[in-house]
Amino acid sequence: MSEAVFYLTTPIYYVNDVPHLGHAYCTVASDIVCRYRRLQGRDVHFLTGTDEHGEKILRTAQEKGMSPKEWTDEIVPRWLEVWDALDITNDDFIRTTEERHEKPVQTFVQALYDKDEIYLGTYRGLYCVGCEAFKTEDDLVDGRCPLHPNRDIEHLEEDNYFFRLSKYAEPLIERYTSNERALMPEGRRNEIVGKLRQGLDDLSISRVSFDWGIPIPWDEKHVIYVWIDALQNYTTAVGYGQDPEMFDRVWPANVHMIGKDILWFHSVIWPAMLMALDLPLPETIFATGFLQIGGEKMSKSTLTGISPHDLISTFGSDGYRYYFMRDISFGQDGEFSWEGMVSRYNADLANDFGNLVSRVSTMVKRYLNGTLPAPPRGDEVTEAERGLRAAFENAMDDVEASFDAISPTQAAKAAFTFVRKANSYVEEVAPWSLAKDESNRRRLEVVLYELTEALRLMSLMLSPFIPRAAQELWTRLGQEGEVASHTFEAARWGGLAEGTKIVTGEPLFPRIEEE
Ligand code: ME8
Distance between CA atoms of 84 and 375, rounded to whole angstroms? Predict the structure, then answer.
């Protein structure tokens, strides 16, 4: 039997504005994890999309003098452009205004109602339109939402339908105290368990004061609360209520990758909804930290959002992807800085990796006429080659363990231990010295074979992070097709065939001069 699908989701983003670095952070990390799982031979289903209902989008459209549907249709392509520019390989893109989402959301909510999980009541309290969330006084700082200090908190009094969320505090505590992988990282799990121990209130799941949303099927003057609608993208996109065969095959998600600001919705409300219908729960919810600027969360509402395009034009998609994964410890908050990005790019990509590629391919061209010799026989392998090969095996193991722990930062570090080892191997074996004496010819062939093979393996191992450069290198090494369509089956030392033609080219990562 084939292994189950690896299903990973990103948050679906509010389209009240264009994406900034903070949004791209979660999506890039998700893409890297998915690319790695594909290299492992897994059947991956990678979902992202847009969250298009609710008051926030409605008000944005009104400010623009458009209907909400006109506004979302205009802005969604701007999001797709960014994902394209960052080489995001999602298998599906869901918009919550699509019929394939709206219909099954109604089916789901109706099923909750039929099981008496929903009742009519009155909500009296606070609401932050920025978060699209009900708030208590305790959530506010100086009377304002700390995440949306520029927006006024609203006082609501509405007849709403309520979900019996309070029933689920105990089962959720049980889940998070007995399963370490259910919610990661650990600090976030403890935080949620602490909050759950204080008990849960039932949750208002409908709104009546506006109509931009999915109607409650049995009472159409209500629209479904935007979070109850949005969370279901994870199930509607894989066939809930429409395609039972697909739903059984793909659900539950292996990973819901999210930012820490939306952890409560994902780790409490969403699993409770699933429990209420006896549906399987996501295996892991992983909350990233915030990308900050000047110590504050980068955001649209505080006007600190920088567009990914502004960085891609200088660093390329690869430089962008690598920097954010490598420099911001995954799961924690981290500060973006231009200087940090330049120095990381120059040190790791331009110097350690890019120069190695240039040096090795230039030597193969100069000393071997660009044609690979026969691989070394057992008796031609010395301690130096054994060290290089062992570094590769260790790096592969560490990369795997890091991805299992959902740490692309550790994985990037681990992969680069092999790059650095290859650089020290070049210095140790000094091919340029061997080339001076014809009697060293075979030894020269052996070390250049080993180095070229190391580059091929780097292309595979680094491809989740730097897919463009990895592909360019793969092609220069005379390898067919796309590196991304291979698996780690191809990651066995000695895979390069004798006679392969190696070509040189422009630097993969031209140095960026600091201004
Ligand atoms: O919350 N640093 O959408 P959203 C890191 N539609 N990540 C950041 C970030 C930052 N500065 N700013 C945003 C929503 N993000 C809902 C989600 S899911 C069913 C519905 C990331 O557009 C972070 O992952 O406001 C956050 O959770 C996500 O963008 C969505 O933000």
Answer: 39
Active site residue 101: no
How many angstroms does the Cα of residue 83 sit away from the middle of ligand 1?
Answer: 15
- Higher per-residue confidence, 300 vs 488: 488
pTM, two decimals, is 0.96
User: How many whole angstroms separate alpha carbon 320 and alpha carbon 158?
Assistant: 46
- Reference 9, options 299, 264, 259; nearest CA is 259
Query: What is the average pLDDT value for the chain, to the nearest integer?
Result: 96
CATH architecture, range 342-490: Orthogonal Bundle (1.10)
Domains 5-316 and 342-490 share a fold: no
- Determine the average pLDDT of the residues in 136-165: 91
What pLDDT is stored for residue 334 in this prediction?
Answer: 96
The per-residue pLDDT for 225 is 96
State both tokens at 224: 């479904």
Q: What is the pLDDT of residue 303?
A: 66
Burial class (CB in 10 A: 0-12, 13-18, 19+), 177: middle
Domain boundary assignment for the chain: 5-316, 342-490
pLDDT computed for residue 510 by the predictor: 98
Q: In angstroms, rounded to a whole number, what is the distance separating the alpha carbons of residues 237 and 246?
A: 10
The single residue of 45, 53, 101, 131 carrying the catalytic annotation is 131
Going 373 to 414 to 331 to 175, the CA torsion angle's sign is positive
Distance in angstroms (rounded) separating the CA atoms of residues 500 and 481: 15
Q: Please, which pLDDT band fits residue 302 given cuts at 50, 70 and 90?
A: low
- pLDDT at residue 515 in the model: 67
pLDDT score of 1: 41
Q: Which CATH code fits 5-316?
A: 3.40.50.620
Q: Which helix (H) or strand (E) holds 104?
A: helix 99-114
With beta carbons less than 8 A apart as the criterion, state whether 5 and 43 touch: yes
16 Cα distance to chain centroid = 21
Torsion of Cα atoms, 180 then 186 then 192 then 195, to 10°: 120
Largest distance between two CA atoms of the chain: 90
Residues having CB within 6 Å of any atom of ligand 1:
11-14, 22-23, 25-26, 51, 230-231, 233, 258-259, 261-262, 288, 290-291, 297-299
| CB-facing half-sphere around the CA of 207: CA atoms within 13 A | 21
Catalytic residue list contains 34: no
CA atoms within 13 A on the CB side of 244: 1
Cis peptide before 185 (omega within 30 of 0): yes
User: Identity (one letter) of the amino acid at 29?
Assistant: A
Q: How many residues does the chain have?
A: 515
Q: Whose CA is nearest to atom 3 of ligand 1?
A: 13
